[in-house]
Specification:
Layout (H helix, E strand, L loop, with lengths): L2 E6 L6 H14 L3 E7 L13 H11 L3 E5 L1 H4 L3 H15 L4 E6 L4 H13 L1 H13 L4 H12 L4 H5 L3 H15 L5 E6 L17 H9 L13 H9 L6 H12 L3 H4 L9 H11 L3 H8 L6 H12 L4 H10 L4 E6 L1 H9 L8 E2 L5 H9 L4 H23 L17 E2 L2
Helix pairs in contact: 2-11, 4-9, 5-9, 6-7, 14-15, 19-20
């Protein structure tokens, strides 16, 4: 069975995602669509609108065949790290033939040439990008400015100025770095841009849809009919993000004091007093982010930093996770076709497959061996995933009861 990989957040699944799904299958000639999807916390540091099971069910009902969770260390991180972890997960499945992503460019050859230039000049580009970020530039502007100054092709600057191109370039670099056999494909992004709040026809960005939901507006024109019921039910029951809860939980974590913040990933020396001062005076989450933000701390970086503080993500652990890559594949949902694909590709997988966490300890011990350092690292990754899942339940507007460690109790979502 031929399979195409998609790297996603689905926050929430919308008509643009449906277009991407259908075009990916057509362009690749694949029979099976495999989505690697972020869990409860997303690439820009924000908690998801609804939990990962609701989003996985939306994807399944729209036509995705298999949904795997991208673990927190990669899901909630910079574009290069996000891309690296997702590509490693697809590689580990062993039988996915292609990776298809959306881009503003729509030209995979042009993106490949730009990616090769970035790889060849990685050290100088990283150093000078860091310097521009510290001066207050955001990431796309910094990279685009450097490309215009240093690159042999003037078009590289335009490619690096758009968010989906940037992610696409990082996917291509991750494919090269991991010596992946995945065939890269891209399709032009349809309709509204990544940050646009206004819809174009029946296509709105995920950001625009979330804003409309927050304002009580109708979003049904922008979401595939088949994918609507899980989202509508979750919103009706209050099983969705409440930023007031997020703000209070962050304050309680920050108010433990500066010493408790030391060693947290990306909490550099001198940031602790800034966090404490911002927490003292902020009335809501956006105000907290604005108060911490500075010329060298962008909004996205602050949001991710707050996610690390909330989930007590330690720098030493994160360094070990990122050096190793994902250590298991967590299945959230599959259709009958997705399940058949997993069965047919079993011998090609290079990481253990987990359907829920009830047997994960025995699977990890069998895979890595008792007392093995990799086993201990996998167990620490598991602890982080469970902690992030429990914390997410505290961020929801309503809690309907039951165990907060849902990964141990939730069965894989199956096609009805």
């Amino acid at each position: 069975m031929r399979a195409v990989g998609l790297i996603t957040e689905y926050n929430p699944f919308h008509n643009g995602h449906l277009h991407h799904l259908r075009q990916s299958l057509a362009l690749s000639g694949a029979e099976v669509a495999v989505a690697v999807m972020s869990g409860h916390f997303l690439q820009r540091g924000e908690p998801a609108l609804v939990d990962k099971w609701v989003r996985a069910q939306m994807a399944l009902q729209a036509g995705v065949d298999l949904v795997l969770e991208l673990p927190f260390p990669w899901a909630c991180n910079s574009a290069p790290v996000f891309a690296q972890g997702a590509v490693q997960a697809l590689n580990a499945l062993g039988a996915v033939e292609a990776l298809c992503f959306g881009s503003e460019s729509g030209d995979v050859q042009a993106l490949q040439e730009c990616a090769r230039w970035l790889e060849a000049n990685d050290e100088v580009v990283a150093r000078r990008t860091g310097a521009l970020l510290r001066q207050g530039c955001n990431y796309p502007i910094a990279r685009a400015r450097l490309a215009q100054e240093l690159a042999p092709d003037a078009s590289f600057g335009h490619l690096l100025a758009s968010p989906n191109n940037i992610l696409g370039l990082e996917y291509l670099r991750a494919l090269r770095r991991t010596a992946s056999t995945l065939r890269p494909l891209t399709i032009p992004r349809l309709g509204a841009g990544y940050h646009d709040e206004e819809a174009v026809g029946d296509v709105a960005s995920a950001t625009g849809i979330r804003r409309k939901i927050a304002a009580g507006e109708d979003v049904t024109p922008f979401i595939p009919f088949s994918a609507l019921p899980p989202l509508q039910q979750a919103l009706a029951e209050g099983r969705c993000l409440d930023e007031a809860h997020l703000h209070r939980l962050l304050l309680s974590r920050i108010f433990r004091g500066a010493e408790s913040l030391q060693g947290i990933y990306q909490v550099e020396a001198g940031i602790e007093p800034r966090l404490l001062e911002a927490a003292e005076c902020s009335d809501f989450y956006e105000a907290l982010v604005d108060a911490v933000k500075s010329r060298h701390l962008t909004r996205t970086r602050v949001q991710r930093l707050l996610a690390y503080v909330l989930n007590e993500v330690h720098a030493d652990d994160m360094a070990a996770f990122l050096a190793c890559g994902p250590l298991y594949l967590h299945v959230l949902a599959f259709t009958a076709k997705g399940r058949a694909f997993l069965a047919a590709s079993r011998k090609k997988r290079t990481l253990p497959l987990i359907q829920n966490y009830s047997r994960i300890q025995s699977i990890l011990k069998r895979t890595y061996g008792a007392g093995n350092e990799t086993l201990r690292l996998a167990q620490r990754l598991l602890e982080l995933e469970v902690r992030a899942g429990r914390n997410y339940t505290l961020l929801q507007r309503q809690w309907l009861g039951g165990p907060r460690s849902g990964d141990y109790y939730r069965e894989v979502i199956r096609e009805k």
